[in-house]
Amino acid sequence: MPHCNDPIHLQKNLKIREAFAKRFPGQTLNEGVSLLPVNYYNFRISGMKNKWVVGLGCETAGAYSNEYNLIGGKSETKCFLCDITREVKEEIKKDVRNLHNCPFIFINRTVVFLYEVVGWSRAPINEAIRKDNQNPSLPHCMKEMSEVEWFTIDGKQLEGRSYPLSSYSQLLFKQLNKFNPGYFDRVFRKQ
Ligand SMILES: [Zn+2]
How far, in Å, CA of 99 to CA of 10, rounded? Predict the structure, then answer.
């Protein structure tokens, strides 16, 4: 696959690699990439306070089959931005933009973009996923997830349903716990 020539992408890729080298000297950055949709969830129910939630997808196959995992995959072109844009489209059918402005963290030596979403809701995403999964002419890469769910930052499904988390997701919540309280407020509201 051709490498990316977008100078804004190249600059962000470099920034990510430099941040990793500084934070984890001597270690090797995984050639994979993930994206975490971060949503300030509006309950639209009186008395319920808005809260930060993150989106995970249920894997249809592989090592994390039937577990809720971060969206993403291998970095095939070595441009984290191009690759995660493609993965998000394939896995949850959404377009992501302006990733060069997007904050990122490292989980298990993999870069994870923290992508604030506004107006994403589960039902239409899951309907689009179901449609693709039932289409016999689409390749497997379009069928890697069966649905998305919101999880609170302590790793619980939003409505309290018990859903299995992948080991990678468990590391994510451990990390978010360390950053808390008020982590996403600081990241996205600049408080
Ligand atoms: Zn690129």
Answer: 12
